[in-house]
Amino acid sequence: MLNFQEAIITWYDTNKRDLPWRSTKNPYFIWLSEVILQQTRVEQGKPYYFRFLQEFPSVQALAQASEEEVLNVWKGLGYYSRARKLHAAAKMIVSEGKGFPNTYERLLALPGIGPYTAAAIASIAFNEPKAALDGNVFRIVTRLFNVDQSIESAQTLKTIQALAQEGLSLSRPGDFNQALMDLGALICSPRQPKCESCPLSFGCQARALNTYHERPVKTPKKKQKQRYVVFHLHVYQGKIALVKQTETNIWKNLYLLPLEEFDSEETFLERLAHGVDQKEWLLPRGTHVLSHQKWHYATSVLDCPPTKQEVVWCDQEEVMDWPIPVIIEKVLRHFKGVPAKAI
Questions:
Q1: CATH 1.10.340.30 location in the chain
Q2: Contact at 8 Å (CB) between 201 and 207?
Q3: Residue 282: predicted pLDDT
């Protein structure tokens, strides 16, 4: 383990990525970067990190903002529950009046902060020796020790956690955790690891046994759900009709266009083939992929108010400034390319 520690820290000091949140020990900045990067690649996440800090430069500023303001700045990142929990946690921190939580256990008590995020913040900002396990670390540890059990198993998770904690550098825990993240991103990649450049190759069991492509072992994913919808883009007197989402779903408190959903591709295509009347213009179809769903959609453009659904009206020129998900941005951008005479 000592050899592993020395090798990874030495490699990190020479090869670490130049990331904006690594130039600070501010726990708010580190927390924000970790939440953004949970489901986002680094290069995609950087602009959102700067944008978010520009709007909410401190945990106090975030706590004082409305949820709608937070969601609007977050839009485009997806997984909007992350933004809602980030906001809720900021309000909790400020209301308690004890300053930013500075231990793993205190961090873990906040909404939206799980073991990985709590360990990352605690180790990087406060030097607490706590191993942070993300996908990169799972991959590295299971390859180093050739762990042949599914990482969805509770017992396997305990084993990996124990191995990671045992190998953690006690003098530089934050750097060590970030070193493993960088190693997983740059060297020990999922499909084509660069074993010849890896500082840990001297002790990697999966490399020696040629099982690296089988590690980590994962339970097969569930089949992606297919959804079929027609959005109704009501453009009336210079305004667009939107519906605020109130159900407990991924787009809670965001605004969508009124829509109708179909239970199969057949009924969806039938609607597109036979549902057009003189008041309606159908935009070309599109798809939008989420982690667990694939949306197949078309958009009907109408120059009249909706009759079956309660809506709010937004000025056509301001709609992109509202908290809308990416799928609606796609529809609206497409709409801007349709000649006015086609409506």
A1: 2-214
A2: yes
A3: 80
Residue 343 has pLDDT above 50, yes or no: no
Name, in order, each residue with C-beta under 8 angstroms of 43's C-beta and a sequence gap of 6 or more: none
Report, at the CATH architecture level, how domain 2-214 is classified.
Orthogonal Bundle (1.10)
130-147 CB burial, b ≥16 within 10 A, e <16:
bbbbbebbbbbbbbbbbb
Note the pLDDT tens digit of each residue in 128-179: 999 999 999 999 999 999 999 999 899 999 999 999 999 999 999 999 999 9
Strand positions, DSSP E, 180-247: 225-236, 239-244
For residues 165 and 160, give the distance between their C-alpha atoms in angstroms, rounded to a whole number. Answer: 8
> Top-level CATH class of 225-342?
alpha beta
Sequence-separated (6 or more) residues with CB below 8 Å from residue 29: 21, 53
DSSP type of residue 202: G
Residue limits of CATH 3.90.79.10 in the chain? 225-342
Tell me 149's DSSP state.
S
> Would you give the distance in Å from CA 239 to the centre of its chain?
31
Q: What is the pLDDT, as a whole number, of residue 305?
A: 87
- CB contact at 8 A, 236 and 276: no
Compute the Cα dihedral for 307, 310, 313, 319 and give only its sign. Answer: negative
pLDDT in tens, 22-64: 999 999 999 999 999 988 899 999 999 999 999 999 999 999 9
Which residues make Cβ contacts (< 8 Å) with residue 130, sequence separation at least 6? 104, 118, 119, 122, 123, 165, 168, 173
Cα radius of gyration rounded to whole Å, the chain: 24
Q: Is the pLDDT of residue 336 over 90?
A: no
The string of pLDDT tens digits covering residues 252-283 is 889 999 999 999 999 999 888 876 555 667 88
* Residue 34 bears catalytic tag: yes
Q: Are 283 and 298 in contact (CB under 8 A)?
A: yes
| Omega before residue 216 within 30° of 0, cis | yes
Q: How many CB atoms lie within 10 A of CB 255?
A: 23
Catalytic residue among 34, 247, 280, 317: 34
Phi, psi for 289 (deg, rounded to 5): -100, 125
The span from the CA of 106 to the CA of 113, in Å, is 10
